[in-house]
């Protein structure tokens, strides 16, 4: 398990612990060790990518949202695994694996796709030059 510190936008420091066994899971705790949230990834198609299947960073309260934690976890998981990260599309369907997007997740996933931390989804726009018709 990889543990490291991260300085949030609010000036507080948290610990990010990433478990690399089988699927990847990342837990976040505050300075006192209290859990703040978790992101869970599932290894897909013989190791070709990791799918974000569950995420919450407001275990104690919403004050920890929008602090850069999700972005930093994605960055670190991609770096450790060497794999691209995918996420479900915001299509209104409940996914059997729990990966459907709720709450702040649609906006978060869209932003992370723009930044290249999450691979484009099925509904993302592709330029004509990029599409192999």
Any chance you could write out the topology, listing elements then pairs?
Blueprint lengths: L1 E6 L5 E7 L5 E5 L5 E10 L4 E8 L12 H13 L3 E3 L17 H10 L19
Protein model, in words:
This is GNAT family N-acetyltransferase. It comes from Microvirga brassicacearum. This protein has one domain: Aminopeptidase (3-Layer(aba) Sandwich). Strand 3 and strand 4 form a beta hairpin. By secondary structure, it is α+β, with helices and mostly antiparallel strands. Strands 1-2-3-4-5-6 form a six-stranded mixed β-sheet, with helices on one face. Helix content is about 15%, strand content about 30%.
User: What CATH first level would be assigned?
Assistant: Alpha Beta
Task: Specify Rg, calculated over alpha carbons.
Answer: 15 Å
- CATH topology title: Aminopeptidase
Uncertain segments:
none
Distance between the termini: 43 Å
What gross morphology would you assign? globular
In total, the number of domains comes to: 1
